[in-house]
């Protein structure tokens, strides 16, 4: 993702609403609602160089527990919408 970890965490609560962000550690976040949970794990903050420009780069993985296909799609639609950066 084109974020630093701090930038990702700043917008995360809105991106995952009505789920709640809990158990925040240095490289992992748990996102919960009812009997569903998402484990969001991040790598180390990094940058990608494009000519003389440096763009933040953060590896992110999501693991889903207790989600139906429709619940997964709804979660990801909101997640992508709120964390999408402009361009193109």
Task: Reconstruct the topology from this structure.
Elements: H1 5-16, E1 20-22, E2 28-33, E3 36-42, E4 46-50, E5 53-57, E6 60-65, H2 69-83
Antiparallel strand pairs: 1-2, 2-3, 3-6, 4-5
Protein described:
The chain is α+β, with helices and mostly antiparallel strands. The protein has one domain (5-83). Helices cover 31% and strands 36% of the residues. The protein is built from 2 helices and 6 strands. It has helices at residues 5-16, 69-83; strands at 20-22, 28-33, 36-42, 46-50, 53-57, 60-65. The strands form 2 sheets. Strands 1-2-3-6 form a 4-stranded antiparallel β-sheet, with helices on one face. A hairpin with a 5-residue loop joins strand 1 and strand 2. The longest helix has 15 residues, at 69-83. It is elongated and about 45 Å long. The two termini are 16 Å apart. The mean pLDDT is 90.
In short:
Helix content is 31%, strand content 36%. The protein is elongated and about 45 Å long.
Please tag this protein with its features.
88 residues, alpha+beta, four-stranded antiparallel beta sheet, two-stranded antiparallel sheet, elongated
Apparent shape: elongated
Mean model confidence by pLDDT: 90
Number of strands: 6
Strand residue content: 35-45%
Main β-sheet, in a few words?
4 strands, antiparallel
| Radius of gyration from CA coordinates | 14 Å
Q: What is the number of helices? A: 2
Low-confidence stretches: none
Q: Bin the helical content.
A: 25-40%
């Amino acid at each position: 993702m084109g974020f630093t970890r701090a930038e990702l965490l700043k917008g995360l609560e809105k991106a995952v609403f009505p789920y709640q962000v809990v158990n925040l550690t240095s490289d992992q976040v748990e996102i919960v609602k009812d009997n569903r949970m998402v484990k969001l794990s991040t790598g180390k903050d990094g940058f990608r160089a494009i000519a003389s420009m440096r763009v933040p780069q953060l590896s992110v993985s999501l693991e889903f527990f207790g989600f139906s296909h429709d619940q997964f799609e709804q979660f990801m639609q909101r997640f992508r919408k709120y964390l999408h950066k402009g361009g193109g």
